[in-house]
Write a structure and sequence with these properties.
Layout (H helix, E strand, L loop, with lengths): L14 E7 L2 E8 L2 E5 L16 E5 L2 E4 L5 H8 L27 H15 L3 E2 L3 H9 L59 E7 L22 E5 L15 E5 L7 E2 L3 E2 L3
Parallel strand pairs: 7-10
Antiparallel strand pairs: 1-2, 2-5, 3-4, 5-11, 6-11, 7-8, 8-9
């Protein structure tokens, strides 16, 4: 059986901490501005046509959640005054304060951002799809931010399946506590591959033929029903966890493998 060699190194990231009360904090990492090639080439294994054409995008600096939003963070914000809709205080199927919140719709995630913005007096929102991929890649061009393949020593996905020269691993069949793999990318973000799918602002679209190059979200007023997910989850194939992989779904959908993380642009 082939062995997977994992090299680890330490790096320092800039971040700030938002106090949500009762000892619950939200860590936000500064993502420096820059340009990158968004999407994949046809030669990338298991890539799909909606990831093309690969194109240059320029991203302005922003702050991004160090981890997916946890259940403890969700409960703290869900207890704040309503903005546009009600929120369930404890929606998740897999319980645990430090597990990612899941079983939340796109509309739920937007309401969370609105309540958090009102509470902190800072503008929070979901990432654009371009911001998400830029933050995930952190300067890399490989299918995953840690290299050409993925293993269950690095991320939480269905280990019954392999990607490229990877090896079979474990299939935990549930979420894991955020940061539990202790693997961050070069920007200092954890769990960008697997664990839970993450909502983005954008409406779904089938290719990058007409997208903007400034990193802003693609909003289609004639197609407001579906939104985009990124990152894969604990129950997906490893190919779905690639940096370029995209999945569209109805914005009202909520499932035990869908969560999110937040952006702040004025911290």
């Amino acid at each position: 059986m082939p062995k997977t060699i994992i090299k680890r190194h330490k790096k320092t990231a800039q971040y700030f901490t938002e106090n949500l009360g009762n000892g619950i904090a939200l860590e936000m990492v500064l993502i420096p501005g820059g340009s990158f090639r968004m999407g994949s080439l046809e030669k990338e294994l298991r890539s799909t046509s909606d990831e093309r054409p690969q194109h240059e995008v320029t991203i302005k600096p922003f702050c991004f959640g160090k981890y997916p939003i946890t259940q403890a963070q969700w409960q703290a914000v869900a207890a704040l005054p309503q903005v546009n809709q009600e929120l369930k205080l404890d929606p998740s199927y897999f319980k645990g304060a430090n597990r990612p919140v899941e079983s939340v719709s796109w509309h739920d995630a937007v309401e969370f951002c609105n309540r958090l913005s009102n509470h902190t007096q800072r503008p929070y929102r979901l990432p654009s799809e371009a911001e998400w991929e830029y933050a995930c890649r952190a300067g890399t061009t490989t299918p995953f931010h840690f290299g050409e393949t993925i293993t269950t020593e690095l991320a939480n996905y269905d280990g019954n399946y392999i990607y490229g020269n990877g090896v079979k691993g474990v299939y935990g069949e549930k979420t894991t506590e955020v940061g539990s793999f202790k693997i961050a990318n070069e920007f200092g973000l954890y769990d960008m591959h697997g664990n839970v799918w993450e909502w983005c602002q954008d409406n779904s679209y089938n290719s990058y033929e007409k997208v903007s190059i400034d990193g802003s979200a693609w909003i289609d007023i004639n197609n407001n029903k579906s939104r985009l997910l990124r990152g894969g989850s604990w129950r997906t194939y490893p190919a779905n966890c690639r940096s370029a992989s995209r999945h569209n779904i109805d914005a009202t959908s909520s499932s035990y493998h869908i969560g999110f993380r937040v952006v702040c642009v004025a911290a």
